[in-house]
Amino acid sequence: MQYRPTIGLEVHAELKTRTKMFCGCANDPDEERPNANACPVCLAHPGTLPVINRAAVKHMLRIGTAIGGKLADFSEFDRKSYFYPDIPKGYQISQYEHPLVLGGELSGVAITRVHLEEDTARSIHAKGKSHVDFNRAGIPLMELVTEPVIHDAETAGRFARELQLLLRTLGAGEANLEKGEMRIEANISVSNKEGAFGTKVEVKNLNSFRSVERAIAFEIERQTALIESGGKVVQETRGWDEAKQSTFHQRFKEGSADYRYFPEPDLPKLFLSEVPEFSREAIRASLPELPWERRERYRHAYALKESDAAYLCAAPERAEFFDAVTVALDKAKEPVALAANYLVSDLAGIYAKKGFEEYAALDPLAFAKLIRLALSGELSSRGAKDTLFILTEKGGDPEAIARERGLMQVHDPVALTEAVKSVLGEEAKAVEEYHAGKTAALQYLLGKSMKATRGAGNPVVLKEILVAELG
Ligand code: ADP
Ligand code: ZN
Ligand code: MG
Q1: What is the DSSP string of 119-182?
Q2: Quick check: CB of 148 below 6 Å from ligand 1?
Q3: How many other C-beta atoms lie within 10 A of the C-beta of residue 20?
Q4: Are 392 and 362 in contact (CB under 8 A)?
Q5: Residue range 318-368, pLDDT digits in tens
Q6: CB of 141 shorter than 6 A to ligand 1
């Protein structure tokens, strides 16, 4: 029997704005003092009224345009009613019938809708007490829902990473999973009937891309084994246990909860096509180069490998740094390819450990100069790499650094002749062999001469001098 897994994702992401979604409180995810950013509006005091954050709407329209979705001409907010301490109004302002964006596609995955809502307060349960921190309450939150068109864990992981990269590229959000800025719920089902879906299970608290992939893989296995052994998958919400690397039952879906959605009467309707700032052309023109466009450009302009282009584009800061280097190298193919090679193979480890502040220490102009020195042969490949590591730590001028440490290639015939003569004086046996016609002896003497210059001698010049001196 064939088992076909199906996955659909629901992603929430906090949007980066100066103020919250419906009030003037700061939207500051790094605020550590509880309830520092709270006001009568986001605390739901009676008589207060919400005001729509224009910047949040704009982020949504830019996201919608980037994924090729349909931007709404008309949109509105709805009240989603439920009772919980993290939602003091007794309802969340969300969107229901008229989301800002419908359809679209990202990383080959079809998107159902993207809507805008407000984040809830954070509940903290500790030592038998519950606390509520309202700093998060009312932060603009994007909800993106995909179609059930994913069939394996890797595709889900790739999609989620691409979404994070898109949000960062657009400046729409930091989307750190570890910080809860982006929260992913995975719906997973396994079918053993052609053309029919199985019962889906929803998995929550996935705090990293890794756990998204592992939880999906775990559920596919669990459900498949269950069906195989004659059991039935029940519709439920499960959590991900990071320590046990398994999912566990949290609660059953009690039918669909009745949220009593209805249009928010305290907010105006949005006739988006009538706002010049929100016209499709204006929004499109405001978009930066998108991650997939950038990858294609790197591949075509500089003949980079797909995986190298992906690495360089995987973080906007890194891609921006690389772009600055390409400009400093006049976008010439060969030097840019060498720069890419250094970034991918030599610097990747350092940056994985130290993070992107390193790119600030390494000046693109200095890096470009280093590439030129390496390509012209003035710096050996070894010398270039040593200099590069010093640049990433301290910055500075690559030529000065290389000279100071004797890493620049020496072409000066006087200095090189001196080195050759001292080698010939010590290597009488090899000299004899050379005169007896052993060609390997020349290679040996060249090696010794290189060593005598501490690897800095230009090999071509050294060889000429060596042959001349040997007579
Ligand atoms: P619900 O009404 O339970 O919220 P939706 O139809 O709104 O379900 O879908 C919610 C999410 O679940 C979407 O991401 C969708 O792609 C996904 N989904 C729907 N059906 C399935 C299924 N059979 N298997 C896996 N995912 C599914
Ligand atoms: Zn407020
Ligand atoms: Mg739904």
Answers
A1: PPPEEEEETTEEEEETTSTT-EEEEEEE-S-B-SHHHHHHHHHHHHHHHHHTTS----TTTTSE
A2: yes
A3: 27
A4: yes
A5: 999 999 999 999 999 999 999 999 999 988 877 777 665 656 678 999 999
A6: no
With contact defined as beta carbons under 8 Å apart, do 398 and 445 qualify? no
Any ligand 1 atom below 6 A from CB of 17: no
SS3 252: strand
Burial 388-408 (b: 16+ CB within 10 A, else e): bebbbeeeebbbebbeeeebb
Q: Is 167 in the pocket of ligand 1 (CB under 6 A)?
A: no
Global pTM value: 0.89
The rounded distance, in Å, linking the Cα atoms of 165 and 319 is 11
Neighbours of ion ligand 2 (CB under 5 A): 23, 25, 39, 41-42
Whether 292 and 71 have beta carbons less than 8 Å apart is answered as no
| Residue 461 main-chain phi, psi, to 5 deg | -65, -40
Compute the distance from residue 102 Cα to the ligand 3 centre, in Å: 14
